[in-house]
Structure prediction request, 492 residues.
Amino acid sequence: MSQQPLVTTTLGPVQGFWQGRSARFLGIPYAKPPVGDLRFAAPEPPEAWTEPLAATAYGPTAQRRTFGDGPTIIPEPSIPGDDVLGVNVFTPNPSPDAALPVLVWIHGGGFVAGSAASPWYDGAAFNRDGVVLVSLGYRLGIEGFLHLEGAPDNRGVLDWIAALRWVRDNIAAFGGDPAKVTIAGQSAGGGAVQTLMVTPSAHDLFRAAISVSGAVMEPQSRAAGLAVSELFTSRTGLPATVAALRDLSHDEMQRLQDLVTAPEEGAAALPGLLLAPFTDGESIPEDVHAAFRDGSAAPAPLMLGATHHEFNAAAEFGMPDAPIEAAVGILGSVGLPPEGIEAYLALHDGATPAQVIGQALTDSLFRATAVSIAEARADRELPTWLYTFEWLSSAPMFGGKAFHCLDLPFAFDLLAAEGAENATGPDAPQKLADAMHGAWVAFIRDLDPGPQWPRYTRAHRDTMVWDTTPRVAPDPLGPERRIWTTRRTPTV
Prediction:
C-alpha cells in the first residue's frame, strides 16, 4: 500500500498517510475559517485548491481550554489556529469502489469544550471491521450557540449540517457509502445527535443514529435561548451583538464565556446547559423531547443510553456532608413533584443525601431522558435499542462507579488508548469491548445490533445491560421510569 494515499474531493486533492491498516486524512476543511465577518456567520464552503492538501495532522480546535482546571477524563488536546471547521477521515480502503458504511462522530464537552483530536476517537477498530469513521470540529460556546443580534442562531448546529453535507458529497472517494451514514456522539455529542434528529434540514444526511449519554438544554425554548443572551449582557456588560464581539481575542471570548457559565444565585430558572442548541423556529423548529413525543423527529433507527453513575461523583465529592433537605431541594428543582420525591428517596433508601443528589443529577440529565425518548419511539413502533452501562471502574479516582465517558473506550475498542486505563483501571474486560464494539458495528452496517439485543418495545422494554457479562433485561430501569414520568417540564 502507498504510504501517502491521495484522494480527490470536490474541492481538491488531499494527501493522507497510512497507520497500520487505516488510511488517515486529518484536518480537511469543510468550511472556511470562522474569522472576521464569518466568525458568527453560517458556515461557507472553502475555496477550491489544486495542489494536494497535506492532511497529515489534526487541525485547529474550537476548544481553547479544556473543562475546569485539571485534566479531563478524555484526553482532549487544544490545537491553536482559526481553521476549526474540519473533518478527520479514517478509512481502511480509500477507493470509490469500497462503498463501506460510515460513522460520523460528534465530540462532547458540554457544547463549550471538547476536541475531535482525542485519541479516544481514533478510527482504527472501526476500520478493522469495515467501517469508515469521520470526526468533526464545530464552533463552541458563545461562538457556536449564544443568540446574537446580527447572526444566525445555533451556528454550531449549522456547522454539523455543513460537515454532514461534506460527507454526503465526498465520502465515496474515501471508500464510504453516502447512503449508509450513521451519526453518533457522546454527552453534548449525544445531544447533538438528538438535535439533528429534530432538525428537518439534516434528515436526508444520515440513516441511523447513536446517542451516548446525550444531553440537551432544558428547557430548550426560544425564550430560554433569549434569556441566556440577556444573562450574557447582564454578567459581562456587553451587548449580545455581532458588532460587539466580532473582533475580540480568543482569550477575551473565553473570559466572557466563563462569566456567563459561572454558577450564580438566582439563575436557577435558567437551563442547566446555557450555551447549547435551542429552539430557534428555523433550523430547530421545536424542543427535542417534544419532537420525539409528537413524532416529528426523524424515524431513523436509534441506539441510545447512559452510564449508571454519569455525574454522581461531582455531588459526592463536592458536597459530601449535604443534608437531606438539599437532596429534597435538588429533586424538586429538576421537576419531581412531592410524590415523586418521596418515591425517589424510597428507591435510594440507605444512600447518603450526597449520593441521592448525584444519582438525581445523573438520572434527570441522562438516564430518564434516554428512557423518555425510547418510550416515545416505542409508541410509534420505531426501531430503538436502549442500553444501560453498568460496568464499574476500578480506577482509584472513580473506583466503583460507571461514570461519564467510561463507556467510550469499550465502544471504540480502544482500551489501550492514551488515558484509557486511568479511567477504567487495569482490569477492563476485553470481552465487554468486543461485545459493545461489535454491536455498534452491526448497527452501523445492518441497522440492527444483532439478535442478542432485541428492540425496545412497550410490550417488553428489553434493555441491554453492558457489564462484564452483557445481558438483556426486561425493563431494568422501570423503577426510575415510573418515578420520572411524574416530572414536570421546566419552563423559562
Observations:
- The two ends are 58 Å apart (CA to CA).
- The chain has one domain: 6-217+283-320+363-484.
- The mean pLDDT is 94.
- The longest helix spans residues 353-379.
